[in-house]
Design brief:
2 domains; 6 helices; Lysozyme-like_dom_sf; Transglycosylase SLT domain-containing protein; Transglycosylase_SLT_dom_1
Length: 131
Amino acid sequence: MPTFKLRMRTSAAILAGAAGLTALGAAAVPTMASAADASPQAIAAQIVPADQLASFSQIVSHESGWNVTATNPSSGSYGLGQALPASKMASAGADWKTNPATQIKWTLDYMNTRYGSPNAAWAFWQTHHWY
């Protein structure tokens, strides 16, 4: 019987601790308002793997200057990653025209699919000045 009481108390303590961690974890997750206020670079730092972020950032800096609505007047490529046609980004979300997180997700997927990683995409970009 004492073992049962000990387990009950231990389980209760674990649950209480987990509830506290959940509360702390929830506070660390950005709210919709804070996410809307975050810069595209800060959003990218949350989405792109750390070991790929510098390369991802280099490409986006060169392609769009981190301007979510950047449009190439001659080709029509659009957004942070300069998608062509721009509507390809709709595969990442209906808000692709204005949401940096959606554009970052699409651009990261494009780099991974076409080149294997942002690092490989950046190596290609450095040689060709496009990706």
